[in-house]
Amino acid sequence: MNLFDPQLLDRCISCGFCLPACPTYALTGDEGSSPRGRITLMRALDTGVLDVDDPRVREEASFCLGCRACEPVCPAGVQYGQLLETWRDLEWAGRDRPLVARLLTTVTAVTPLLRLLGLVRRPARGAGPPDRSLMLGCVERGLFPGVSRAVRRLLPGIAVPPAQGCCGALHAHNGDSQRGEELAHRLGEQLPGVVVTTSGGCAAHLATVLGRERVQELSEHLVATGTTPVGEVRVGGRRARVALQDSCHLRNGLGVAAQPRALVAAVADLVPVPGEATCCGAAGTYSLLRPGDSRRILDPKLDAVEAAGVDYVVTVNPGCLRQLDQGLRRRRSRVRAVHLADLLLDAAGGRALPRPRRRALRAGRG
Ligand code: SF4
Ligand code: SF4
């Protein structure tokens, strides 16, 4: 039926190398919840053996985190993220899209609403030469407007046009890849020069649509431009101990993992934590659509972060920041989740980070 691009679907050689990398396979041990199993389901859809209403097909399209951890380990170069977008387009078309996803994709597509949000939450704004501009993400504008203000202080010359729409990543990952592409093109016209973003997920989507040379995630931009961090982050008279949580799409989609680590290590003691490269369970709308599964993914990660004895866990994506912050607060951990931009600004003597709590108020999970 050619529902999927045959060049993408036929690439899988069913070797199974991707299985150990997949968080949902790790949870269930069920082949059907692995990348290879899901590609088998896509093939069954493509040949008409199963249809989009099949309960297992529906369940697996939703259970998949879309983290793309299956891509870098795949010897055949399967572009699983693109296959998943097509699959979600088929499963979540129109009223079949989950209500939360429908609401979020509708609201974020309305630029005047985003501008209104900007007036209330006051993210960064400012003019600059037309060679680079800072993207104000939808989630970040609403929940963490201080992150863009931190970037503007770290990079005083960067332009931050206030008239910015959504990048469309939310749409592309939630069953409307065509709208996702349109929004990315529109944002590309609104932002001059290199688009710098503080969101790994947005960076990966924009790079796919606008071209890799047009888009840089913040850590990538700082390293590429030789912007050396200054100062250090201190806690209780010593250098802070800091873990890094990768952004899945930044690491698995764009291959950016060394840069944020180099920046953290320049201003603090970077502490490796088991599982730091795997998904935190935020995964776009996943934590809203499947909160139980999202917690099952998150909890072992928070256990590892706490066991490592760090003061902060740094993220490079607002969705991960929200997920880790909420999880750590729930268990009243002494560890704080912060964005990389805020860590670097604290080191430089700018706005201070919230200090880690002296001790956990209550041990164990909330
Ligand atoms: S997706 Fe890649 S790693 Fe996984 S089974 Fe197919 S070819 Fe092998
Ligand atoms: S995107 Fe993530 S959860 Fe989905 S199949 Fe690939 S590794 Fe598994």
From TrEMBL:
Keywords assigned by UniProt, alphabetized: 4Fe-4S, Electron transport, Iron, Iron-sulfur, Metal-binding, Repeat, Transport
Task: State whether keyword Nucleotide-binding applies.
Answer: no
Top-rank lineage group of the source organism: Bacteria
Q: Which cofactor does it need?
A: [4Fe-4S] cluster
Q: What is its EC number?
A: 1.1.99.14
| Name the UniProt record assigns to this protein | Glycolate oxidase iron-sulfur subunit
Name all 4Fe-4S ferredoxin-type domain ranges.
Answer: 1-32, 55-78
Reaction catalysed? Answer: glycolate + A = glyoxylate + AH2; (R)-lactate + A = pyruvate + AH2
- Which terms in the Gene Ontology molecular function aspect does this entry carry? 4 iron, 4 sulfur cluster binding; glycolate dehydrogenase activity; metal ion binding
Q: Which Pfam families match?
A: CCG, Fer4_8
> Lineage of the source organism?
Bacteria, Bacillati, Actinomycetota, Actinomycetes, Pseudonocardiales
Q: Has UniProt tagged this entry with the keyword Electron transport?
A: yes
How is the co-factor bound, per the entry? Binds 2 [4Fe-4S] clusters.
So what does this one do?
Answer: Component of a complex that catalyzes the oxidation of glycolate to glyoxylate.
